[in-house]
Design goal:
The chain has about 350 residues and is of the alpha/beta class. It has helices at about 30-45, 60-65, 75-85, 95-105, 120-125, 130-135, 150-155, 165-175, 185-195, 215-225, 240, 250-260, 275-280, 310-320, 330-350; strands at about 50-55, 70-75, 90-95, 110, 140-145, 160, 180-185, 200, 230, 245, 265-270, 285-290.
């Protein structure tokens, strides 16, 4: 069980979760890889399907998405791209909440996933029944949840946010004097609370990848590479975030690698992002942030084991069989859509 006595952390006991071991996929020959990719391309066209993939999936899957007119993006942009695309079938390579979000925003479309059992520690640490009961005990609070949550948790929320828009939304709510329940990532919540001054109760969940980064080990790595820029996702512990040159979403970190003049970068997020970074900035040197040190056990070693459940093989099987379809009940989808659309409207007003 996980409990917390930290200030402004919700007084709840979270369920114990099981983090899977990293899957061991058989090594594919170049010829077999070409066969799989060719067959997937054929079936995407035959099924009137488009492939959307997260930055943390394998390079093979990311390249295939781009080659076939799909997209590689963060979780929200994956769903937004799918909503605007005319395809009747969406194939979502990522983890389950991403497939659910795509279904919520595209309820009339078929949504398939190569690995529908691939979940997320943040999602698992925030079960809907426990979270709803907690929110019900604080009716005077506005409920803001991160994208990494189930459809049922989103349905209980007033707002959904991504890491890129979390701070502007919380500042907006704080300016109105609203008290906030934030879930599920306590590190991102702590970062946003400190930057905004908002009155927030933080759900004590963490990401098993980002929670492993360690401040003391980062200090040693920075000393060894003094010219490197440090890029940190705000799901990381505060002792790591405070050392960053750039704190931001996956999109912001990719942009930083492309635009900053530094030759070297220390990157504190899932190492799957390196594929896109290398595509856009092949001359840059990318280094994984250290996930070891005092208190570190390198449980995930900078790569999500659930993301690794996606492969060319099960992607092909999902297309062949039409199984692994994601369903969200229409009434639940309608409730979960409201906090997402509230965020999208806010984002449009920001741009306007």
């Amino acid at each position: 069980m996980i409990t917390s006595s930290e200030p402004n952390i919700a007084a709840v006991t979270l369920p114990k979760i099981t983090v899977p071991t990293h899957p061991l996929w058989p090594e594919l020959t170049a010829a077999r890889r070409r066969e799989l990719r060719a067959e997937i391309k054929r079936l995407l066209q035959e099924r009137d399907a488009v492939l959307v993939a997260h930055y943390y999936t394998s390079g093979d899957i990311q390249e295939l998405a781009e080659e076939t007119g799909g997209c590689v993006a963060d979780s929200l942009e994956m769903a937004r791209f799918a909503a605007a695309h005319p395809a009747t079938t969406l194939v979502v390579a990522g983890v389950r909440f991403m497939g659910e979000t795509s279904k919520i925003l595209n309820n009339e479309k078929t949504v398939l996933m190569p690995a529908p059992t691939a979940t997320c520690s943040l999602d698992e640490y925030c079960p809907a029944a426990l979270f709803t009961a907690f929110c019900d005990r604080h009716p005077d609070h506005t409920v803001v949840v991160y994208a990494n949550t189930s459809a049922a948790v989103k349905a209980r929320a007033d707002w959904m946010v991504t890491s890129g828009i979390a701070l502007p939304v919380i500042r907006h709510l704080a300016a109105k004097g609203e008290k906030i329940i934030w879930a599920p990532d306590k590190h991102l919540g702590s970062y946003v609370a400190a930057a905004s001054g908002a009155d927030m109760i933080l759900w004590p969940g963490t990401c098993v990848v980002h929670d492993e980064f360690r401040g003391e080990a980062m200090q040693r790595m920075r000393a060894a590479h003094p010219a490197a820029a440090v890029l940190v996702h705000p799901e990381s512990p505060a002792e790591v975030v405070v050392q960053a040159d750039v704190v931001g979403s996956t999109t912001a970190m990719i942009q930083a690698v492309r635009e900053l003049p530094n030759k070297e970068f220390i990157v504190a997020t899932d190492a799957g992002i390196f594929h896109k970074m290398r595509q856009l900035a092949p001359d840059k040197i990318l280094m994984e942030a250290p996930a070891v040190g005092i208190g570190g056990d390198c449980q995930s070693c900078a790569h999500c084991p659930w993301m690794e459940m996606n492969s060319l093989t099960n992607l092909l099987e999902a297309l062949r069989s039409g199984e692994n379809e994601i369903q969200v009940a229409s009434e639940l989808a309608a409730k979960a859509r409201r906090p997402i659309e509230r965020m999208l409207d806010f984002a449009r007003r920001m741009k306007g």
